[in-house]
Design brief:
Oligomer: single chain
Helix content: 25-40%
Strand order of the largest sheet: 1-2-3-4-5-7-6
Radius of gyration: 15 Å
Number of helices: 4
Shape: globular
Strand content: 25-35%
């Protein structure tokens, strides 16, 4: 599938349609192997509950962007700004998702560029994230210039319930 045009939009509030599209994105990601805190099969109710809570938490310290194509959500990413007094220079990247049929078209790159630009606007000079060792996401982060720090064995279960190592990355801005 080739995308004609992708828009990156910052989300500040929930709508029923948005929750349904984000839920479908999360389910697609989990069912295609993304280790993002959920086990397969992921129910629509669980996905909706996650997004309802996430959207309610959006504000100055948690931001969400979606990638859309033809009015359909095809990707998303979150940025959590550290609120600690000694951590005002850093933020954490959370849950980068792209629908499987849209992967490989630069959407993750667009989302991450937007996230990094916003982090700079908030005077953040250090970004951190974690992902499953050997995952497609790890390859994306490496291509985007992230530095691998190290890994922890058996950190989290993959969607099939098997314990996998998690790897940590950072990027200075």
């Amino acid at each position: 599938m080739t995308i004609q045009h992708t828009a990156i939009l910052q989300i500040t509030h929930e709508t029923p349609e948005l929750i349904e599209q984000l839920s479908a994105l999360l389910i697609d990601s989990v069912e295609n192997g993304a280790s993002v805190g959920f086990l397969s099969p992921l129910s629509p109710d669980t996905a909706r509950f996650y997004w309802q809570n996430t959207l309610k938490a959006l504000g100055p310290d948690l931001m969400l962007w979606v990638a859309t194509s033809d009015d359909q959500v095809v990707g998303s990413v979150q940025l959590s700004l550290s609120t600690k007094e000694n951590g005002q220079h850093r933020a954490e990247v959370q849950k980068l998702f792209v629908l499987k049929v849209y992967r490989g078209q630069g959407i993750a790159n667009q989302l991450m560029q937007t996230l990094e630009s916003t982090a700079k606007e908030h005077a953040r000079t250090l970004l951190v994230l974690d992902t499953q060792v050997g995952s497609d996401a790890e390859k994306v982060y490496q291509c985007l210039g992230w530095m691998r720090v190290g890994e922890i064995p058996d950190f989290a279960a993959d969607p099939n319930g098997q314990l996998r190592a998690t790897v940590f990355y950072y990027k200075t801005l």
